[in-house]
C-alpha cells in the first residue's frame, strides 16, 4: 500500500509521454499539455502536507527534465516550488471537492505561466502572450481540470486508506 | 499561506532560484554528451517506455485502420489517377539512375553527398509540454547511432539525433527552438543551379519553417520544394525532402530573402522514424528488421534482458 502512490504517479508520468502523445496528439492550433502526474503531486501536497508535496515534486521534476529534454532544472524547480505552494492542507479544504479542484487548477495554471515565462526568458520560444493563452493555457487548464475531477474521489479514498494504515502502525 | 515567506524559506527559495539559473545556463547550450546518470535514467526509463508505447501504437493503428476503410473509395480514385503518371515516372527514374551510374563511373567517383545507410527505429516518447520539441527513439549507441545523424520519416526530414544513450536516443525535431538547430537546405528551381539557404527554426506566427539567407538574385517562387543540401556541419545526406515554400519576403536588412516552408512530414504524429548515417556504408542489420516485424521485436527486447 505504501508504494502504491509513487507507482501510480510513475505510471501516469509515463502515460503522458507515450499513450497520450500517440492517442491525443497536439495539433498546430491547440497544444494541450497533460500535467497529470503533477496534478497528483498537488493532491499529495493537499492531503499529506506541503513538504511531501515538495519532495514528490522534486523527484517528478527531475525525471521530467532528464527523460524528456536535455535542458535541466526547469521542471525540477517549478514542480517542487509549486508542489510546495499548493500545500494548503486545512481540514476544511480537504473535505470540499470544489476547493481542491480549484487549487489544482490554480496551481497547474501557475505552472503553465511559470514554464512559459522561463522558456520565453531563455529565448527558446517566441510565442506572443495572447497566443500562449488561447493556444496552450486554456486547453491545458480544461484538460487537467477534467483529470483532477476524474481522480478526485479515488485519490481521497486512497489518502484515507493510507492515513488509516499509518495510524494502525503507530498503535 | 502565512507560513510561506518566513526567513528560512525565503533563503531556500533564493538558493533554489540560483541553482535553477546555473543548471539552465549549463545545459542550455549544445552539449556534446549528456552525463552518465542522465544516460542511465534515459535508458532505464526508455525500456519501460517502449513497453508502454507498443499497445498505444496498436490502439492508434486500429483507429487509423477504421478511418482508412471509410476513406477507401476516395483514395482509390485518387491513386488510380496517380498511377497513370507512375509508369512514365518510373521508367524515367530508371533511365536517370543508369545515366547517373555511368557518369559517376566515368568520373571515378564512388561516393556522393546523397549516399547513406539507414536504421529504422520506434518512437517511444515525446516531450509532453511541446516547448522543447524532442522525441525519444529505441535505438542508441549500441546500434551504431551517433550525435547529429539525420532523422526522417517516410515523408521527409524531421530532425537530428541530439544525444544518445546505450539503447535509446533523443531526437531534436526541426521545430525545436534551439539556436544550434540549423540545417543547410536547397531549393529546386527552374534554373540549372539550385538555391541554398538555412532552415532557421520554426516561426510560431506563420506556422512554418523559416528558410533564411537565400540570395536575393535568384528566382525562388512559391510551391517550390525544399530539401537538404548535404552541406554544412551536421553531416546530413543531400536531397532529403523538408517541405514546400508557401511565402517569400525580404529579410530585415533587405539583402537576402526569407521563405516560409511548410513541412513535408507530419510533426504532430510520429510513430516510426529512420536514422540516417552518411559516413558508414551499412548500419547494423537494417535489412533483417525491415523484412519482418516479429524480428524487430526480438531485437528490441534483447537490450532489456542484458541490462537486468
From TrEMBL, chain A:
Superkingdom as given in the UniProt entry: Bacteria
GO biological process: regulation of cell shape
InterPro entries, per database record: Cell_shape_determining_MreD
Membrane topology of the entry: Multi-pass membrane protein
Main localization category: membrane
Keywords recorded for this protein, A-Z: Cell membrane, Cell shape, Membrane, Transmembrane, Transmembrane helix
GO cellular component: plasma membrane
Transmembrane feature ranges: 6-24, 36-60, 66-86, 98-122, 142-159
Annotated localization: Cell membrane
NCBIfam families listed in its UniProt record: shape_MreD (TIGR03426)
Family of the protein in this entry: Belongs to the MreD family.
Protein name, per record: Rod shape-determining protein MreD
From TrEMBL, chain B:
GO cellular component, one term: plasma membrane
Entry-linked InterPro entries: Cell/Rod_1, Cell/Rod_MreC_2, MreC, MreC_beta-barrel_core
One family name in Pfam for this protein: MreC
Transmembrane portions of the chain: 10-28
Name under which the protein is recorded: Cell shape-determining protein MreC
Function: Involved in formation and maintenance of cell shape.
Domain Rod shape-determining protein MreC beta-barrel core span(s) in chain numbering: 123-276
Gene3D superfamilies, per the entry: Rod shape-determining protein MreC, domain 1, Rod shape-determining protein MreC, domain 2
Chain spans, region Disordered: 285-308
Superkingdom of this protein's organism: Bacteria
One GO term of the biological process aspect: regulation of cell shape
Record family assignment: Belongs to the MreC family.
Coiled coil (UniProt feature): 79-106
NCBIfam families noted in UniProt: mreC
Entry keyword set: Cell shape, Coiled coil, Membrane, Transmembrane, Transmembrane helix
Amino acid at each position: 500500500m505504501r508504494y502504491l502512490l509513487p507507482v501510480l504517479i510513475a505510471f501516469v508520468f509515463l502515460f503522458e509521454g507515450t499513450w497520450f502523445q500517440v492517442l491525443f496528439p497536439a495539433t498546430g492550433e491547440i497544444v494541450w499539455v497533460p500535467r497529470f502526474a503533477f496534478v497528483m503531486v498537488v493532491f499529495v501536497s493537499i492531503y499529506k502536507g506541503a513538504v511531501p508535496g515538495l519532495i514528490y515534486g522534486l523527484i517528478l521534476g527531475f525525471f521530467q527534465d532528464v527523460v524528456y529534454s536535455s535542458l535541466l532544472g526547469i521542471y525540477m524547480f517549478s514542480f517542487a516550488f509549486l508542489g510546495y505552494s499548493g500545500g494548503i492542507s486545512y481540514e476544511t479544504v480537504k473535505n470540499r471537492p470544489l476547493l481542491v479542484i480549484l487549487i489544482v487548477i490554480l496551481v497547474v495554471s501557475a505552472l503553465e505561466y511559470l514554464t512559459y515565462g522561463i522558456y520565453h526568458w531563455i529565448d527558446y520560444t517566441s510565442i506572443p502572450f495572447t497566443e500562449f493563452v488561447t493556444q496552450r493555457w486554456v486547453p491545458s487548464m480544461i484538460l487537467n481540470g477534467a483529470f483532477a475531477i476524474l481522480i478526485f474521489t479515488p485519490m481521497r479514498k486512497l489518502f484515507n486508506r493510507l492515513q488509516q494504515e499509518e495510524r494502525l502502525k503507530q498503535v | 499561506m502565512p507560513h510561506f515567506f518566513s526567513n528560512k524559506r525565503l533563503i531556500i527559495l533564493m538558493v533554489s532560484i540560483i541553482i535553477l539559473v546555473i543548471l539552465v545556463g549549463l545545459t542550455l547550450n549544445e552539449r556534446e554528451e549528456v552525463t552518465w546518470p542522465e544516460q542511465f535514467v534515459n535508458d532505464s526509463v526508455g525500456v519501460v517506455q517502449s513497453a508502454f508505447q507498443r499497445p498505444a501504437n496498436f490502439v492508434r493503428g486500429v483507429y487509423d485502420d477504421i478511418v482508412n476503410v471509410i476513406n477507401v473509395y476516395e483514395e482509390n480514385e485518387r491513386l488510380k489517377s496517380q498511377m497513370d503518371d507512375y509508369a512514365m515516372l518510373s521508367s524515367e527514374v530508371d533511365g536517370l539512375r543508369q545515366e547517373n551510374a555511368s557518369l559517376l563511373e566515368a568520373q571515378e567517383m564512388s561516393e556522393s553527398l546523397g549516399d547513406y545507410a539507414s536504421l529504422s527505429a520506434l518512437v517511444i516518447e515525446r516531450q509532453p509540454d511541446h516547448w522543447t520539441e524532442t522525441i525519444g527513439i529505441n535505438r542508441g549507441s549500441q546500434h551504431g547511432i551517433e550525435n547529429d545523424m539525420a532523422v526522417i520519416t517516410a515523408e521527409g526530414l524531421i530532425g537530428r539525433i541530439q544525444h544518445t544513450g546505450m539503447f535509446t536516443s533523443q531526437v531534436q525535431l526541426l521545430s525545436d527552438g534551439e539556436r544550434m538547430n540549423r540545417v543547410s537546405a536547397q531549393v529546386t528551381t527552374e534554373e540549372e543551379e539550385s538555391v541554398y539557404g538555412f532552415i532557421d527554426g520554426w516561426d510560431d506566427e506563420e506556422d512554418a519553417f523559416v528558410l533564411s539567407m537565400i540570395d536575393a538574385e535568384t528566382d525562388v517562387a512559391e510551391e517550390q520544394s525544399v530539401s537538404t543540401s548535404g552541406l554544412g556541419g551536421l553531416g546530413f545526406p543531400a536531397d532529403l525532402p523538408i517541405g514546400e515554400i508557401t511565402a517569400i519576403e525580404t529579410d530585415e536588412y533587405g539583402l537576402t530573402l526569407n521563405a516560409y516552408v511548410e513541412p513535408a512530414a507530419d510533426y504532430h504524429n510520429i510513430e516510426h522514424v529512420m536514422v540516417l548515417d552518411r559516413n558508414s556504408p551499412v548500419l547494423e542489420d537494417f535489412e533483417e528488421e525491415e523484412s519482418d516485424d516479429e524480428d524487430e521485436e526480438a531485437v528490441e527486447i534483447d537490450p532489456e534482458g542484458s541490462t537486468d
